[in-house]
Fold this sequence. Notes:
Number of domains of chain A: 1
CATH architecture of chain C: 3-Layer(aba) Sandwich
Helix content of chain A: 10-25%
Largest sheet of chain C: 6 strands, mixed
Strand order of the largest sheet of chain A: 2-5
Strand content of chain A: 15-25%
Structural class of chain C: alpha/beta
Number of strands of chain C: 6
Strand order of the largest sheet of chain C: 2-3-1-4-5-6
Shape of chain A: elongated
Distance between the termini of chain C: 17 Å
Strand content of chain C: 15-25%
CATH class of chain C: Alpha Beta
Shape of chain C: globular
Distance between the termini of chain A: 24 Å
Order of helices and strands of chain C: EHEEEEHEHHHH
Oligomer: heterotrimer
CATH class of chain A: Alpha Beta
Helix content of chain C: 25-40%
CATH superfamily of chain C: Pyruvate-ferredoxin oxidoreductase, PFOR, domain III
Order of helices and strands of chain A: HEEHEEHEH
Largest interface: B-C, 27 and 21 residues
Number of strands of chain A: 5
Amino acid sequence: MAIQNKAKKPGWKELPEGDLIIGGGTALEFKTGDWRSKRPIFLKDKCIHCLTCWAYCPDAAIITQDGKVVGYDYEHCKGCGICYHECPVKGKAIMMVSEKEAKANEKK
Amino acid sequence: MANEKIVARTGNEAMAEAMRQINPDVVAAYPITPATEVVQIFAGYVADGIVDTEFVPVESEHSAMSACIGSSAAGGRTMTGTSSQGLALMAEMLYIAAGLRLPIVMADVNRALSSPINIHCDHSDTMMVRDAGWIQIFSENCQEAYDNMLQAVRIAETAKLPVVVTTDGFIISHGMERLEILSDEDAKNFVGEYKPENYLLNFDKPITVGALDLTDYYFEHKRQQVEAIKDSKKVILDVAKEFGTKYGRTYGLFEQYKMDDAQIAIVAMGSTAGTTKVVVDELRKNGVKAGLIKPRVFRPFPKEELAEALKNVKAIAVMDRSDSMNAQEGPLCVEVKAALFDADIKVPVLNYIYGLGGREIKLEDINFVYNELTDAVSGKSKNRISYLGVRE
Amino acid sequence: MKDFTEIRWHGRGGQGAKTAALLLADAALASGKYIQAFPEYGPERMGAPVASFNRISSSQISLHSGVTSPNIVIVLDPTLMDSVDVTEGMTSGGTLLVNIEKTPVEVRAQFGIDAGIKIATVDASKISTETIGRDIPNTPMLGALIKATGILDFKEMIDDTKKKLEKKFRTKPEVIAGNLKAIERAYSEVKI
């Protein structure tokens, strides 16, 4: 994301006409993961795969495979915590941790 | 010239006739005097199965233009018609249609704006939206209204800009005249098939229309839009040339009437230009070198071309059928003067505000203006702005 | 025929003054003329005095101001002449055609019409009632107009009108016959 921002934006002669964005699914290119201050951690053993989190996620950041949750798209997850809030499992199948700490742990 | 049919039609009927031949995919409109008939007659064609158009009767002009925007963005050839308050109500959507570069074609019958409420002709409505980004084409008579509608489709789709074709309310819209119409086949071939490059219903090539543009992109898109309308001058001329070659009636950015050796000239748009021609002919019989310039397109404004055409005259009168409420002059005069300034042409330019709310403009009035110009040439000082035909 | 003719029609709202102007324009167009036909627009009320206009020429008409000095004035309803100055702006040598049972001499005396204006009269209401079955004077007035002014060729006009009526009233032959009869009768009965 940071790199994208620094890239030179196209001038008026290069832009598609009429404020069009050509091509579909371009939101994928817009990485919002670095907005996150809290990170959801997937607790695989507790998950009942009810897909409530998948339905509620405002950014389609819950990754599923064959109808089962397999993890989260951290490039787009903004850390809103709605998945955690809505998770019906007693004791929750999602854990929200500080992004800063999670990053520090990643480096170790 | 072949295959033309000569009929008697009012301006509204002429525009509806052009729409029938264009056979657009979608027409969305709301009725308003004096433009009602354009769409009413066309709705009859839809009801009778004469055209294939999807007709969308809406609850307001704002909705009409909104529906047109949706239809055009989806990829349909789209048309509408309105006047005065209807155009005013559309204003918000007109900017959107232009910004999205949608080639919508609109028939607009020039009518005064309220208040006071009035149904008759002046150019206030069209002038109000002159900066909306639409190509604006004025018609002198029924024939031009018809020819301009056919050409507008080609202009719009080539330039990727919306086009409004205007006639003067009642004077042309409800006046029956001799009209030469193309055969349906010629008209169909001339407008051709609409093949948009990008459109929402093309599932093979998805697009986003109308994305948010903040400080980082808005300016670039507007800059691009300005360039498009500037470039549309060439498109307008190309389309006019093809039309003229095929059907014998020539059009340009403006018409020059007896301007070759003119010493004094009037610049006037719409039906008044026709009346002015009669006066020019009379003056010429008496040896007065009078001429007329009739701008056909007000946007894009043909500034360099107009200055070139006016470079040898000694005095100019610009006729404005609307007022800018204490801007320098009326909207047409402001443009003409700026064009002359940039071309280093310094001659007396007199502005006449006339015909507001349908006030009659007579031969005597135009004669009076030419007399004033003759006086101005001989050095007599004249009012910069005069109100022609108003009771003192 | 003069090269450029301006005509004013006087009638009452609903009486067909506008239609008359359109019919005349259509007929003139069919004989190769350039034409204009336009009504006067105001608040439209049944019975109120209204006017409509024609311009007919053999060359293109670019004039788009109102008709103020007509060569021909046609009055569909003579009761208007008490309140409206139907000769207003008329040029000397012009023709005033009135739908009335009186003679031109009587009309001139009754309304004090200027000697420079020719007067023609025809009882178009009676003719239309007898031929079409209703008091719609505008169609027969066309026949009277041609006789009184020579503005169009009568045969050309009647042929063109026949063609148009046949198109419009395919299922009502009696309407076609009635209208044509009305025009022919007015043409022969008009008093000049």
